[in-house]
Amino acid sequence: MGRILKSYFFWTYSRGSFHYDVMVTLILLFIFATPWIPGWSFGDKPSLSAGPVHPIQVIGDGDHGLIVTVQGADVAVPADATVSEARKILRKAIEPVTGDAVSVERWDTIQDPQGSVAWRVWAHR
């Protein structure tokens, strides 16, 4: 039994042999089955929503921060929203490109020549 485990560990079986097929099957089973096994977390957070329809522009501000531009059609911040609520909504809107480890510092609305409104958000990691 020890010799077989050692051969599996060092991958000494030739292609097409029974043991080779067993090893490949175990590897494929691991790759495709682990996402559904409770307790196996790889740290990813798949999005449950479709996400933004328009492109999101991200540029660095030169001070370890980001300036993110999101189209107004993709973000719905109510006019009566508090600062805290607006910050939360904008953070959620930029999360697909920045990840969840960012904090929104400030924001502003901008308008392009065609009249479309967009949000410019300053964020830090």
Characteristic key phrases:
single chain; alpha+beta; 125 residues; 2 domains; Alpha-Beta Plaits; 4-stranded antiparallel β-sheet; 33% helix; 4 strands
Could you describe the 3D structure shown?
With about 120 residues, the chain is of the alpha+beta class. It has 2 domains: about 1-35, no CATH class; about 55-125, Alpha-Beta Plaits, CATH 3.30.70. The protein contains 3 helices and 4 strands. It has helices spanning about 1-10, 20-35, 85-100; strands at about 55-60, 65-70, 105-110, 115-125. It has a 4-stranded antiparallel β-sheet, covered by helices on one side. It is elongated, with a radius of gyration of 24 Å. The N and C termini lie far apart (about 50 Å).
Number of helices: 3
How many separate domains? 2
Distance between the termini: 51 Å
Q: Within the largest sheet, what's the order of strands?
A: 1-2-4-3
Roughly what percent helix? 25-40%
Strand tally: 4
Beta content comes to: 15-25%
The CATH topology annotation of the largest domain reads as Alpha-Beta Plaits
Please give the largest β-sheet: 4 strands, antiparallel
- Describe the global form: elongated
Element order, helices and strands?
HHEEHEE
- The averaged pLDDT comes out at 83
Structural class: alpha+beta
Given as residue ranges, the uncertain stretches (5+ residues, pLDDT < 50) are none
**What is the CATH domain class of the largest domain?**
Alpha Beta
Rg from C-alpha positions? 24 Å
CATH architecture of the largest domain: 2-Layer Sandwich
